[in-house]
Amino acid sequence: DKRTLNQFRRFTGRAEGLSISFEAHLLGSRIEYDEERDTLRISSLPTQLRDQLKRRKAEQESTS
Question: Has keyword Cytoplasm (predicted)?
Answer without folding.
Answer: yes
